[in-house]
Amino acid sequence: MDKDNKKYTVEENIQNDFELVNDEDVNTNSKGQKLKENLKKIFTKKTLQEKFPNPDTELEIPEYLPSTQSEDTILRVENLHISFRTPNGIVRAVRGVNFDLKKGETLCIVGESGSGKSVTSRAIMGILAGNSIIDAGHIYYNGKDLVKCKEKDFYALRGSKIGMIFQDPLSSLNPIMKIGKQLTEALMLKKGLKKDEAKKRAIELMGEVGIPQPEKRFKQYPFQFSGGMRQRIVIAIALAMEPEILICDEPTTALDVTIQAQILDLIKKLKKEKELTIIFITHDLGVVANMADRIAVMYAGKIVEYGDASDVFYDPRHPYTWALLESMPSLATSKRLSAIPGTPPNMIYPPKGDAFAARNHYAMKIDFERQPPFFKVNDNHYAATWLLHPDAPKIENPLKNRYESQRKLHHIQEDGSNE
């Protein structure tokens, strides 16, 4: 944010920023339809003038998400910007991402496809595509800035220090190589194990991740495994080098719901047994409900909300987080689920203001003009939305009724079990 924009007077807010949006201010979706009908007109210029009669009040605006770095922080991402060269122009995929990862925790990064989640994780692993550009930022691990590391440095880190489970297990495995060879390859190359020792360890790993008859499966090809079993093999390969950090890039997306639950339980079990630190990437908040210690919600290359799991689930503050949670079914759901209107913005031409403004039911004019800074909710919870600005009206959490229904249902279930 420019230094000149760090302070805004209430008079400027009333006259310019908090006026209702006009047709020309609102983007159109892919079908050319106006999205203004999806925006609720939540307040007017007149009500603000009545509420804030003094036009000379100055408001301090925080610039960045404060660092939560502590002694147990093992990975820190600072102001990361990543772009991609394409025939149509430069795609601004990641735009100023900041977060810390503490030893032993599970940090979940949630957002729609194209929000920059996977690009961020690939930058940590040093496996960005050849047309990528790291425009700015730092990724610190064990005192090293990974942004400045060369391929030989990453070779020493990948697998042995930072492991990764990819989204599609079938494309992660070589279809014409037996599973056993794919498991033992890294053990022999990087750990220096002999062939018999590597085979023994590979069979142990297959047993640890729940593969039945590991001695028999050791000699089979990937096509002879089900989707869930292939994902277990990919997890075993990622754990073979005993990494300190495990990045799970949507590891349950290609699996049905029952197998999803089994894989999630397996990851939780392995985390506890091997004292892993996990970055879990997904587009589904429901998947991480029982896994996350902290959650970072991403949209259009930026983190828009960041906090403990309980804060993000039960006291969300960003309209995008509200929209994600409203689209999730629950036992207390009685109404039709909400859908987020429109589509994500074209990141060749990033929006001037809040990237979510055109799809936001609670959008204000300032959302189309200025990017919101992070506002502090509590010491561990921050959200980048103008609705937390001191001048903005108090908007009731649209999920409040759902939470009350869930609590009532929970009490009914508890009373029934006690009887």
Describe this structure in words.
By secondary structure, this protein is an alpha/beta fold. 32% of the residues lie in helices and 21% in strands. Strands 8-9-10-5-11-12-14-13 form an eight-stranded mixed beta sheet, with helices on both faces. A four-stranded antiparallel beta sheet has the order 4-3-6-7, covered by helices on one side. A hairpin with a 2-residue loop joins β3 and β4 (89-102). The longest helix is centred in the last third of the chain and has 19 residues, at 400-418. It is globular and about 70 Å long.
Quick summary:
The chain is an alpha/beta fold and 419 residues long. It is built from 14 helices and 14 strands.
Which SSEs are present, and which pair or pack?
Blueprint: E1 7-9, H1 10-17, H2 45-51, E2 58-60, E3 73-86, E4 89-102, E5 106-110, H3 117-125, E6 132-141, E7 144-145, H4 151-157, E8 162-165, H5 169-172, H6 179-190, H7 195-208, H8 214-217, H9 227-239, E9 245-249, H10 257-274, E10 277-282, E11 294-299, E12 302-308, H11 309-314, H12 319-326, H13 365-369, E13 375-378, E14 381-383, H14 400-418
Helix pairs in contact: 6-7, 7-9, 9-10
Provide the descriptors you would attach to this structure in a database record.
single chain; alpha/beta; 8-stranded mixed beta sheet; 14 helices; 32% helix; disordered N terminus
Report how far apart the termini are.
58 Å
Order of helices and strands: EHHEEEEHEEHEHHHHHEHEEEHHHEEH
Mean pLDDT: 81
Largest sheet: spatial strand order: 8-9-10-5-11-12-14-13
Number of strands: 14
What structural category characterises the helix and strand content? alpha/beta
Distinct helical segment count: 14
Percent helix among the residues? 25-40%
Please state the CA-atom Rg, rounded to the nearest Å. Answer: 24 Å
Q: Main β-sheet: number of strands, strand sense, barrel status?
A: 8 strands, mixed
Strand content: 15-25%
- Low-confidence runs: 1-16, 22-63
Overall outline: globular
